[in-house]
């Protein structure tokens, strides 16, 4: 059995030694380990992948026992995550995830897709995945989100993927799924926050556009960044051309970020991610 | 003799036909032509490189005669531009330009280097290029700039290259050299305008940093962008590491932009560049 | 109506002038033009997009009349191309094309998919596109290809896209569809020609892998290259990891090449492409 | 004091634990550690950076004592390496290294430059670095190399950097400096091995060119690769244009590789590098 161990603690001499000592005592073989010490606040982060027979409880208990009290320890069995996808009308990110899921390459089970329009229903249902439309017309943001949450929660998803879900989420909604909402934004943040980033990019006359996948926090487009990719453009790209060209970067950036999240490679410290690739 | 012809005009049927008709009549052979029509305002831009014997005046006159009255026509003989470089203390961009100049690859004559510190004097003088230090201590911005201009103007440079010149320029200074000031900014604008962009980038936790070369206008870091390049970074890059890594992107981006400018490949429409590569 | 005009000829003074003269006389407005003169053999290539009412025949006739006799002229109405896709078992390239087609972004009509295995049938049939399996077991290459051609030809496709079709094609097959076969090869050619390029890449210890989309000629993996993209890898990538990571580059590179082909932006001179973007 | 510890051994349970146990016992604080297990041959590689007071000998002895007998242990104090540069006529790589050295950014002391032509003498001597020309005219390869080695060896360099040294080295020469010769080759190997890679690239019509920095072995251009970078090109690039454009990639790739080598981040297993960034 393959397990992932994540440790976070105030830095101290011996943290790697003590952690790998537990692995040694339980005869767990290390497949890979990565450490990082945030230099400003001297905070230690570690991810290890181990193979062996010991059970999760024993492993967790031993780690907690030997590591300093303030250490945060997480032990995960390597397995596909359960997710729900939210979308609006655009098919490129969702379609890409559906194809990866179909081919067994997503490392996740798509439990359902929830959208605020009917547009994507035929595409989703081709893949025999439940599609629910929760229209937002005539509803306040909070009322609409209450309905959405009623659809999400029975799935008990570990992550909710915003695959071009084009509505701003309320702090209440975000608070309900802390560090579990993964978004794709169609600019290389922090450039072009908010609506219509390709139009903003065109107006500014940039020569590079991009996409950013991030965890969602209260602050619009300001959550911890997981992955960013860019694409050169020229004066001959209209805002619409940029949007067309940007689709490929968006879908690849989202898929890249999800791979990292689903393999428990993303740790968060304040507003920054530590990514153990 | 090789010449570059730049034409800008309100779009109309026959502009390419009329322009190339002049070349045909003067037996000028086209090496390359590029056109672009700005679709919003229907504005036509064209760059042609031609080889042949006709003189510049005849060529210009014929083009003005046949093209619509509103057309702006520029005829340039292909040759190295005369430039002055401004710098502060950092050597990576300036050093890169000095090496290219030394190897005959800059497509420009560096007439002199002007800095507000003495730091770079030994480097510049190795290459037998005049170095002038105009310290800014104890001077108002305008008084300092007046002294700088006194040093620049006798050189009669066609372009002034800001190779990590770390002082903000006044609108008066900018107005004195319209579309002739080329700057390198150490972020992929419009992200991280202003001071200390690498610290800003670190704080935001971006996964991509970059550099932007642009023409300078009154508005800080908001001038028409010529070239942008990026570089991936990780959580393990401190702001200082980003600055170190960013140096290579800065120097290459500046050199790329200068190549385009010195070969008359950059046209400007409002705040956007048209680049004919 | 929007039309694309492609001209190829021995270089001579006045070719652009004469071509755009025809547009002028027919009151066709130029949306864009691009020219290239191959400097070794002085061969002229031009692509123009024009808008206006004249019919294709008149346009073609006038161009042939005014241009030198040796000129090759092609006039295309801008419209989706009719294509057939060939595949084997892998779904990433095919799936990506199916999603683009579904979203109306492929600029082509997929008339059918032909594979040498049944694996991909369920995926293709989700999208209501005819799927034909032509198994190759027990057949000689030529016999198998004869059966494949019987399936292809009734569709009368303009292009045949090899979306990870994993069998080598005979010169006879290639000759039947000159410049109409577009392939994706999973390496940055000419590195790692032939079978198992990711294993070859792993063995060589490269730090960059890539994909190449090219027109198919008799010579295995040696046809004119349309598009290439790359991806950094590290020592920690096994050959299998490279193959996984490479899928995204493969599908994006193929889609990029097809966009160029379907918009008539690819001209061929000997074994090299001229791409008018 | 900051030290770098490199460990290589047949994989076994407890290697990280035992290594970090030594650090713990000597009160050395880990700044970073990286491990890799080559999965085919189960070979373990580790790099650690530690801070603390223990002396190198004690550290080395303890590691050897506790790790399996077959383990290879290397302890390095973090400090600039002593190097000699070899070149021919081209200035872009050498000039870039001279500027970095001048700015204190190379992490190495350039003890001298040896070339087979006089061309680069003025450039090198500007920086007050000894330049020696060892002309090869009229000499056999081995005789010439014997003279070169007579110039190199008194410097006792840790690494020899081939900054566009355009002569093939004999196996004897290579054997004299095992894993200490770093070369820059002007193609993304293994494409375009040998002479005139840009011409080869032009002939093949590639859309991407690149550069490769590698350790030199007997086999021409086949040594372990340290770094590779690429650059898009188009049909309009002649072989000469590619060579011009390629210079920037060459110099940046070489500098990138040298940074890794000089910080003891490169381990070698057979013909592949393990790079701990």
Automatic annotation (TrEMBL), chains A, B, C, D:
<comment type="function">
    <text>Catalyzes the hydrolysis of 10-formyltetrahydrofolate (formyl-FH4) to formate and tetrahydrofolate (FH4).</text>
</comment>
<keyword id="KW-0378">Hydrolase</keyword>
<dbReference type="InterPro" id="IPR002912">
    <property type="entry name" value="ACT_dom"/>
</dbReference>
<comment type="similarity">
    <text>Belongs to the PurU family.</text>
</comment>
<feature type="domain" description="ACT">
    <location>
        <begin position="4"/>
        <end position="82"/>
    </location>
</feature>
<comment type="pathway">
    <text>Purine metabolism; IMP biosynthesis via de novo pathway; formate from 10-formyl-5,6,7,8-tetrahydrofolate: step 1/1.</text>
</comment>
<dbReference type="GO" id="GO:0008864">
    <property type="term" value="F:formyltetrahydrofolate deformylase activity"/>
</dbReference>
<dbReference type="Pfam" id="PF00551">
    <property type="entry name" value="Formyl_trans_N"/>
</dbReference>
<dbReference type="GO" id="GO:0006730">
    <property type="term" value="P:one-carbon metabolic process"/>
</dbReference>
<feature type="active site">
    <location>
        <position position="221"/>
    </location>
</feature>
<dbReference type="InterPro" id="IPR004810">
    <property type="entry name" value="PurU"/>
</dbReference>
<dbReference type="InterPro" id="IPR045865">
    <property type="entry name" value="ACT-like_dom_sf"/>
</dbReference>
<keyword id="KW-0554">One-carbon metabolism</keyword>
<keyword id="KW-0658">Purine biosynthesis</keyword>
<protein>
    <recommendedName>
        <fullName>Formyltetrahydrofolate deformylase</fullName>
        <ecNumber>3.5.1.10</ecNumber>
    </recommendedName>
</protein>
<dbReference type="InterPro" id="IPR002376">
    <property type="entry name" value="Formyl_transf_N"/>
</dbReference>
<dbReference type="InterPro" id="IPR036477">
    <property type="entry name" value="Formyl_transf_N_sf"/>
</dbReference>
<dbReference type="GO" id="GO:0006189">
    <property type="term" value="P:'de novo' IMP biosynthetic process"/>
</dbReference>
């Amino acid at each position: 059995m393959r397990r992932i161990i994540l440790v976070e603690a105030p830095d101290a001499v011996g943290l790697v030694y003590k952690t790998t000592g537990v692995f040694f005592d339980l005869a767990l073989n290390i497949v890979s380990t990565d450490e990082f010490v945030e230099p400003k606040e001297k905070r230690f982060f570690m991810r290890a992948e181990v193979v062996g027979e010991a059970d999760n409880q024993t492993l967790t208990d031993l780690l907690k026992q030997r590591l300093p009290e303030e250490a945060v320890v997480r032990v995960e069995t390597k397995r596909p995550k359960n997710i729900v996808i939210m979308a609006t009308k655009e098919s490129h990110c969702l379609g890409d995830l559906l194809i990866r899921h179909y081919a067994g390459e997503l490392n996740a089970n798509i439990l359902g897709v929830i959208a605020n329009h009917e547009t994507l229903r035929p595409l989703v249902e081709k893949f025999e995945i439940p599609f629910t439309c929760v229209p937002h017309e005539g509803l306040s943001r909070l009322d609409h989100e209450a309905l959405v949450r009623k659809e999400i929660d029975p799935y008990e998803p570990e992550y909710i993927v915003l695959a071009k879900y084009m509505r701003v989420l309320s702090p209440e909604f975000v608070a309900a799924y802390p560090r579990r909402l993964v978004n794709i934004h169609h600019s290389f943040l922090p450039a072009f926050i908010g609506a219509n980033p390709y139009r903003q990019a065109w107006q500014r006359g940039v020569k590079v556009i991009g996409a950013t996948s991030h965890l969602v926090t209260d602050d619009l487009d300001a959550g911890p960044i997981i992955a960013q990719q860019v694409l050169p453009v020229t004066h001959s790209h209209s805002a619409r051309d940029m949007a067309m060209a940007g689709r490929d970067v968006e879908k690849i950036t989202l898929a890249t970020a999800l791979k990292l999240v689903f393999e428990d490679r993303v740790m968060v410290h304040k507003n920054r991610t530590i990514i153990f690739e």
